[in-house]
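Chapter review: from sequence to fold.
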Amino acid sequence: MAAPRTTVWELEPHTRAKHEILRRYLQAWIPILSQGGFKNILYIDGFAGPGRYAGGEDGSPIIAVKSALDHAARIKGNVFFLFVEEKRDRADVLQQCLDELAVPTNFHIKVAAGDRFAEAFEELKQFYIKRGRHLPPTFAFIDPFGWTGAPFEVVRFILGQPRCEILVTFMYEEINRFLRHRDQPANFDEFFGTEKWREGLKLGLSSDRNRFLHDIYLRQLKEVAGAKYARSFQMRNASGVTDYFLFYATNNLLGLQKMKEAMWRVDESGEFTFSDATDARQLLLIGKEPRYDVLAKQLRDRFRGRAITRSEVENFVLAETPFRETHYKRALKALELSDPPALEVIAAPEGRKRGTFPSPSMRLRFCL
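The token string follows.
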């Protein structure tokens, strides 16, 4: 999608899906942190837009505030919102939308009108650095139309702070279109946080560049920004063309769990297709019914000949596969009930029904 020139524009199907993911995730993230005893939590929207679309649909800033309002009665600490919008006409509309909301006194909202994301974030960063403090628990939604104004250094700093995480829109279609533009190398260096993207210029096939650029950004999140958990989700249109990737990165396993839950619950309309694109060897369409056979094969390949606990299986599924942690049950059942069995329970408790795994500590042996 090209950057719109109007103050307000139509809501695209792929943006609607992205916003549904954001809404579902914040509905989990906000109450978890608000109940964790934190005095402050922070939500950042780096490319906020006008707050509403031409059809009256909520934009990402309004989605964020409304998600917090749904849990306002249980939020004892302060919730800070920073909405950055460089275009002043859009920032004015956003402020109007926010003014229509009745928010409690512990909600603190700032619209950084006319500022670029990096500049507004630097001001925020210096506020905490000068006071010798970390950022509060933070979720940053970085959603540019292209690649400029979203430097990787900001991503790296956020992920280096305790209990902070990011969701980045990686506009592959636009990036690929301008990859060879003579005016863009410095901008791409800043966006990727490395010059290694330039090696993609040698690749002739668009599909090869797609994977190459994706893998560079994912590697940067893990190796440079230090994210313990990083996953990507690919959005394709009805023609099968990649529109963009969503990169999610965190150091919190519970955050990963909730993001996967949000992804797997997004309704499909036929206008777009989601897949987990983190690992090219495990590329998996996210649909209404998981491919339990695929997960069963991944489990058997990983643990063949080994004995581990059910809890270890669950953690592996969550941290290292595209599947949700709940999906392991059907996969294990299929392995145990296969002929011949591909899984056996060690010292099964009396009365256990085959194909059920009630205890996290029960030991399972994956057959050779």
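Two observations follow directly from the output. The first strand starts at residue 40 and ends at 45. The first helix runs from residue 13 to 34.
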